[in-house]
């Protein structure tokens, strides 16, 4: 995949999560503290910021940096879940 495709995926993911934040938080109340949607939005916003901050030419380097940043910045299970997956 090209870097632009990853960037588009992150933008679409962010929009999808924003549209479903309350639902994700609701489901998280059943087994957690009810902030999963909020945490995922924070993570996708970090990724959006990273897209404009540094000129990445290699998609794998960009996604690796996104994953490591999510691991470092997100609370609860979100950091390990999404950071490792990316």
Label this structure with key terms.
86 residues; mainly alpha; 5 helices; 0% strand; globular
Structural account:
The protein is mainly alpha-helical. The protein has one domain. The mean pLDDT is about 90.
Topology:
Layout: H1 3-19, H2 21-29, H3 36-53, H4 59-73, H5 78-85
How many extended strands? Answer: 0
Task: Count up the domains.
Answer: 1
The residue-averaged pLDDT reads 88
What is the CA-atom radius of gyration, in angstroms?
13 Å
The total of helices stands at 5
Low-confidence blocks of residues: none
Order of helices and strands: HHHHH
Q: Give the termini distance in whole angstroms.
A: 14 Å
Task: Please identify the structural class as seen in this structure.
Answer: mainly alpha
What is the helix fraction of residues, given as a range?
Answer: over 70%
Largest sheet properties: none
Task: Please give a quick description of this structure.
With 86 residues, this protein is mostly helical. 78% of the residues lie in helices and 0% in strands.
């Amino acid at each position: 995949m090209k870097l632009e495709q990853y960037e588009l995926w992150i933008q679409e993911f962010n929009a999808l999560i924003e549209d479903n934040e309350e639902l994700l938080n609701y489901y998280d109340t059943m087994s957690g503290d009810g902030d999963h949607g909020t945490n995922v939005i924070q993570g996708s916003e970090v990724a959006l910021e990273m897209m404009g901050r540094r000129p990445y030419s290699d998609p794998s380097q960009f996604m690796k940096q996104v994953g490591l940043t999510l691991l470092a910045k997100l609370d609860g299970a979100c950091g390990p879940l999404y950071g490792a997956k990316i």
